[in-house]
């Protein structure tokens, strides 16, 4: 491009020389025709003047050409600066059809391609950030110098405001397991694994740290708290079932061996031993039934045969059908009233709920000599309750009594024949109905179990029955 501009300036200079030569030729001929004697004398003078005239003509033209080229080059420089500063929307005006115009068009095309490339890169970066933010795992990228390059929303939620781009990971996350795993991955240049239990209170993370081509490390933290909890629950469940079955089996085995080894057993002793065996067999049968019931209500395939029922009918039916449980216990089972509000329930499932709660009250609250069953409207729900007036439950046990096999007093529970599964079954049935359950207790004043069911509206039919408008909420 510079060579072409130089060539054009040289061509202009040659034209000016030609112009001067022609002018000199014309002047010289004119002088020879007028006065040949004075030709040499005036030749020098005329040559000087003709040169001055040519110079005066050439200077403005050269100045204009240089100014035009300089202005366009300044625009090119300004354009280049805007591109360098990141303004990819900058463009050069062109349209003269010369070599500078071709250069300006090429620069505009380059800027346009750069803009498209950066737009594609930004779009890809945004898509990657969105994808990483949508992950359930926490992700953090660290530079070779140990500074945070990027972290997704989950990681920011765990680490809080301490973690941000440009800040040292050591000062952002005070977790030795994560820092050690990142360090080992960077030093070894290979993927390293670890576990973190102190990054967030009560949560456990599996860490996978992989080196980056730039020398940094990317760490992915997978929350395995629920998995570990489920695994722990499974181990505890198996251990509890084994323990609950081993105790009566051991007792049955011991009494049977005693009867077998005695060739002439005493009839009274035999009857006593057989009664103990029957008691333990009944306990095992009850445990098996409760295990099957719990497995059923916890199953995703658990179905409820829902139908509209008035709360008052549920309470009266519970008292009538379960009154036999308290006949021999000396405990009075009574109703404390219930509204006629409609709820959608599975009658058999609700009988099991009231049966477990009332049986629980008889076993552990019969010293109060009275059990109340009732219901009341609480906003959009109907709250049912079973209240005893026994010794009550200490506050440290309230939050755990709905867990499988949890017992406040293990010795007393086994003596009463409890399996430790009744309240867990009740909880799952209530949740399946879209309700909630809780317990209130005060030592020496008794315990109240309360569960809520969503209230449903009803429209009358011509035959006198009702059409429920069902809206069951399941927040489990």
From TrEMBL:
Regions crossing the membrane: 47-66
The Histidine kinase domain, residue ranges: 240-457
GO cellular component terms attached to this protein's record: plasma membrane
Organism field: Telmatobacter sp. DSM 110680
GO BP annotation list: cellular response to phosphate starvation
Gene3D superfamilies, sorted: 1.10.287.130, 6.10.340.10, Histidine kinase-like ATPase, C-terminal domain, PAS domain
EC number: 2.7.13.3
Protein localization: Cell membrane
UniProt key word Transmembrane: yes
Catalytic activity line of the entry: ATP + protein L-histidine = ADP + protein N-phospho-L-histidine
Name used for this protein in its record: histidine kinase
MF (Gene Ontology): ATP binding; phosphoprotein phosphatase activity; phosphorelay sensor kinase activity
Keywords from the UniProt entry: ATP-binding, Cell membrane, Kinase, Membrane, Nucleotide-binding, Phosphoprotein, Transferase, Transmembrane, Transmembrane helix, Two-component regulatory system
InterPro entries: BphY/WalK/GraS-like (IPR050351), HAMP_dom (IPR003660), HATPase_C_sf (IPR036890), HATPase_dom (IPR003594), His_kinase_dom (IPR005467), HisK_dim/P_dom (IPR003661), HisK_dim/P_sf (IPR036097), PAS-like_dom_sf (IPR035965)
Residue ranges constituting the HAMP domain according to the UniProt record: 67-119
First-level EC class: transferase
Principal cellular location given in the protein's record: membrane
UniProt-listed PROSITE patterns: HAMP, HIS_KIN
